[in-house]
Amino acid sequence: MFLSVFDMFKVGVGPSSSHTMGPMVAAARFLDLLRKSPFHPKGLRGSLHGSLAFTGVGHATDRATILGLAGFEPATYDAAKAEATLAAIQATHKITPPGLPELSFDPKKDLAFDYGPALPGHANGMILKATDAQGDVILEETYYSIGGGFVLTAGELAEAGGTKSKARADVPYPFETAAEMLDMAAASGLTIAQMKLANELKFRTKAEIDRGIERLWEVMNNCISRGMAVDGILPGGLKVRRRAKGIHDALMAERGLNMTAPHTINDWMSLYAMAVNEENAAGGQVVTAPTNGAAGVLPATIRYYLDHVPGASQSKVADFLLTAAAIGGLCKHNASISGAECGCQAEVGSAAAMSAAGLAAVLGGTVEQVENAAEIALEHHLGMTCDPVKGLVQVPCIERNGLGAIKAVSAASLALRGDGQHLVSLDACIETMRQTGHDMHEKYKETSLGGLAVNVPNC
What we know:
By secondary structure, this protein is of the alpha+beta class. The chain contains 20 helices and nine strands.
């Protein structure tokens, strides 16, 4: 199945792609379904299941669902308008979606958190319903938020045979594994970015692709800049202080001083990533890379390249993102990018693999070295759990992105020191991630029932 660079990288809103963006998208899809139906609804109801229930409040899943039912979408989200809309819904118990009549909806009664067993299709499940004047259900659909803002109905999930399709896409280079990617690159003489671009050109013009990629980096870079300029306390009750501005100010003050240690470059990488994830935690605009919880790793790696690597060129950002999207597609297609499905190895681990591959590519690595860079980065995230304290995308998520960026750069550097030959293939590493995620206890997969979530005081 073809996965565009614009599917992998989506402009959206924090704090979570699977728990905030996904439910908002699902609600928007339900409205579309309702508009096309012959029914005359009078009310709306919904229920959140599995991980969406357990960490839903911390991830603003309830808010996102309600706003989605009111017509909001992640890519065009307006925070001020959203707050006013939520206040009106809570006061009137009425919701008026675009193109539909005023409908009854009481947020406290009509959106339930179901803490029982997860729905059968995926850990992130939700059911949306439309009711008639008597409160009887006249339309119902089950949605699964499968990570990275991707949403499937129960029917689509069953038709796909799971969270990934086995159907070949009608593109010039339909690689579904890293081995196929390497073989196609060898046969064509093209880089990963060039093959990915050729695939994209089946669906968009070169000008559209260029504008889209430019927009993605603009949003990523602006997110870094905002995060480095704002301090204060993050919302959610943990009273986590924003640290990026203080770190940035200190690093700027130290610039040019002989006392600066070589390892200070790690602080810059962490700074860029933490700035993004602090913005994400505050509900700001971010780009899934491949998820919101891991959104800081890749922008931080690009910013490191542009600001700290001699000879870096802005013109290479497109190759970075195209290469990273190809690697992210392999992770998603053959394992997962969802913390609720495979733990944080699937989020920050995949992000680090994508970032390492992108960096190795723009630094002139061969296709084999690029694949090796991705493998090194992912291998050293295997087994990482998803255990957000209080269900918030703050602890350990913010710092974890910083360390993910550092690992990505180190992985790219190690790969470029070699000739691309290595013992563990990227395919083997991705399959190991899938198996590890399958075997991982549910309490370590974005439920806040294990790990740091139960060992750190959170109130």
